[in-house]
Write a structure and sequence with these properties.
This protein is an alpha+beta fold. The chain has helices at 16-24, 50-53, 58-61, 66-79, 96-106, 118-124, 127-136, 147-152, 180-191, 256-273, 303-310, 314-320, 327-336, 359-363, 394-412; strands spanning 7-12, 28-33, 46-49, 85-88, 112-113, 144-146, 161-165, 174-177, 200-204, 209-218, 222-232, 245-250, 276-286, 289-296, 342-349, 368-369, 383-391.
Amino acid sequence: MANKSVSVLVVGFNTRPLAYSLNKAGYDVYAVDFFGDLDLYPYVKDSIVVVNALSSNYNSLKDKYSKFLAHYTLQLHSKHRDVQFLLIGSGLDDDYEGRQLILDEIKTSNTKSVNNDPEIIKKARNIELIFEFLKSRGYKIPRSYSFEKFQSKQYNMEYPFILKKKRSAGGINVFKLEDKTTLISQLEILEKKKFIPSEWLIQEYIHGIPISCTTISNGKKCEIISINRQIIGEEYLNPPKMFMYCGNIVPAGLLKEEERIISEISIILTKELGLKGINGFDFVLKDHYPFFMECNPRIPGSIRASESALNLNLMDLHIKSFIPKEWRNIKKLIKSAKPNTVATKLIYFAPKEIDKSFLLKINNLECIHDKSEPTKNILKGEPLCTILYISKSFSESFNGAKKIVNQIESIIE
């Protein structure tokens, strides 16, 4: 357990699960958060919530929130300059300018960054570089071409295929194209939004099971935390995008050989990239073989499900992984942790505008987290809440979480 005087400033799109774990480990937590869910506030000493600070909403800010996260981080840090650690979660993945502003600010204080360095993040997010590296090692990757090369040459890429941003986040900039007509119409939509061809890939569509792997490292040595089933774009959760991240099941329940290759690739990349702390790697499992998809050089969205399945405070271990003398104990804890339960995380998106009068009843359901404030309606496509259901088996956990989805739907009908 951390000493009560140890403090951390957490920044991200959804800091609630991070703040919860850090608070439970004994840290004083300060947060810059996008949503400001009701169950964030009990775990933080001070916070700035972007949608509240700007008197705005998710739909208005969802494509441009990173600059606001950076701005309000500078503001909150200037108020609490004695905070010991800075932890950046999701939301600033590829905003290197905003990230650098924050790092420049903390240089003038004693705050220590417990994040990957910007140059390492850039390398980890260079998907073409990683694909070439893995291909040279004999691992399977989806056939991919930069959009610029695809335009200038006639590649033999069968439909359906994927058009995706080289640095996608949460499946937001990923599109499945069924034929030439959908390719043309999608490009017309993107060109209205400052489409830059050099930032996009054409990629083979791999039909399979989405999987992620969570690692922890001190920059040289690495351990596997968990291998997770990913829940992507499931219609019963109403995601506004086809490939949108909707949750996880931990552990994934794979065959030993499947886990071996996933672990091997994740460890090789963690060491090759020089990643520190907890990071995530995405795969699609096709015919029992993992095709690598992308690296997320930050705390992944599956972290609370992993913590629940392993009964470990992983956020505490993340911070300690930046302290050299702590690695031996971290390794011991990870190796001795054996999941004896299965945790299912589901993100439920509003299928229509939800009247605020329903929110109290939804918030009072069991296993509900990221609770929306009952002060305004939830618009269609906005995340309404997160379900975290823990049980003894894979099927019991997943089916238990889906039953809560049914309870939500019976409330909002």
